[in-house]
Amino acid sequence: MNVRVELGARSYDIHIGSGTLGQAGRAIAAAGPGRRALLVTDGHVADNHAPLLASSLHAAGIATQMVVVPPGERSKSLEAAARLYDACIDCGLDRGSWIVALGGGVVGDLAGFVAATFLRGIAFVQVPTTLQAQLDASVGGKVAVDHPRGKNLIGAFHQPRLVWCDVGTLATLPRPELVAGMTEAIKHGLLASPAYYRFMRRQREALLALDPRAMARLVSGSCRIKAAVVASDEREESGARATLNLGHTLGHALEAVAGFGTLRHGEAVAIGLVAAGRLARLRGTWSQRWQAELEALLTEYGLPTRIPGLPLGEILSVMHLDKKARAGQLRWVLPQRPGSVALAADVPVADVQAVLVALGAVA
Ligand SMILES: NC(=O)c1ccc[n+]([C@@H]2O[C@H](COP(=O)([O-])OP(=O)(O)OC[C@H]3O[C@@H](n4cnc5c(N)ncnc54)[C@H](O)[C@@H]3O)[C@@H](O)[C@H]2O)c1
Predict the structure, then answer these.
(1) What phi and psi, each to the nearest 5 degrees, are found at residue 27?
(2) 348 alpha carbon to ligand 1 midpoint, in Å?
């Protein structure tokens, strides 16, 4: 099935299927004239899935070279990007060539950043292989590398020409990574769709068992929600796209303070969702029943709901460095009811501190 991201001349399809990786080459060849590609993947995906994708690109007449980066957040760095620029030059990529990102959000963000900047921008395709990337990171054109002082501080908006999701690739994904990916789906339901939120609650067993139909529904449901938000606010200007940061204000800070890669992105955002709910409780805009349901749902999926003993002061200072801080104030996304959120720039620091300490931050 296809979900269309409507962005005028930059519109593209997200194709969602199961066992479809071998057809990606043909689809990429149909999406643009480029006949040369750099396939970027990581050490965990290279053996499992890259050979099939590389041979399907070759079969479609696209001359492909592969670069394998070390797995993990540390590859989202300027140093890793510099090595990819070398590879782009070595294999003769020109402005008509492709960069194909095969992997999770790390590979997608890194390869997308290189595609956005090499020769002032060349075409790229996302072939996401983690649930997190299929549901979320591969869609919307945000690409970035990290700075030692914060995540995603160096980046661009660069839309892919095509996103090719084969939910079958998730069969090799370690269980904790699969579970971490569920956070973004829960977030999408919370912020935009009560029906999708209910689906997450009712289909938990089928989803965790990787039932192909349930997974395709999961990925397409999330992509539809994200595509609509991105189409309405591509560059995060009107506030609509900022709602996707639900759970991320705290989540990014927890990832940074724990040390990038220690706490998975989805795990950190799960704790961020709990914190956002509790802040909304303090404002009286979110009910105790909804908060209890949210915390129970995250727990049922095996996601954390408490801060693992990290220092409060460091969490607060990283949050303030976060690029979403505007004019010295943090902008929170707070749930109002399942399917609806509001932006709040006036959350008192004392409330934030109280919630963080209650969740386990060390004062
Ligand atoms: N651009 C965006 O809009 C956006 C949105 C959300 C998150 N992100 C970014 O995404 C990153 C997190 O992405 P992630 O959770 O996919 O992590 P990841 O890319 O690090 O992948 C997680 C782990 O799974 C392994 N892996 C990937 N696919 C596999 C497969 N099919 N089989 C076996 N192993 C596999 C990877 O090697 C890695 O060890 C973060 O850097 C985050 O900032 C970006």
Answers:
(1) -65, -40
(2) 33
What letter would DSSP give residue 122? -
Q: Retrieve residue 68's tokens.
A: 């394998």
Please give all residues whose beta carbon lies within 6 A of any atom in ligand 1, as ranges. Answer: 42, 44-45, 48, 71-73, 76, 103-107, 109, 129-130, 132-133, 136-137, 140, 142, 151-152, 169, 172-173, 177, 265
Residue tagged active-site, from 234, 236, 255, 295? 236
Domains of the chain listed by start with CATH number: 2-172 (3.40.50.1970), 175-358 (1.20.1090.10)
Return the CA Rg of the chain: 20
| Cα-Cα-Cα-Cα dihedral sign, residues 348, 352, 357, 359 | positive
Report how far residue 6's alpha carbon sits from residue 11's, in angstroms, rounded to the nearest whole number: 5
Residue from 265, 269, 273 to probe ligand 1 pocket by mutation (most atoms less than 8 Å from CB): 265
* 241 tagged catalytic: yes
Written as one letter, the residue type at 77 is: S
Tens-digit pLDDT string for the chain (363 aa): 999 999 999 999 999 999 999 999 999 999 998 999 999 999 999 999 999 999 999 999 999 999 999 999 899 999 999 999 999 999 999 999 999 999 999 999 999 999 999 999 999 999 999 999 999 999 999 999 998 877 788 999 999 999 999 999 999 999 999 999 999 999 999 999 999 999 999 999 999 999 999 999 999 999 999 999 999 999 988 888 989 999 998 998 999 899 877 899 999 999 999 999 999 999 999 999 999 999 999 999 999 999 999 999 999 998 887 655 555 568 899 999 999 999 998 999 999 999 999 999 998
In this prediction the pTM is 0.94
Ligand 1 centroid to residue 126 C-alpha, Å: 12
Catalytic annotation on 44?
Answer: no
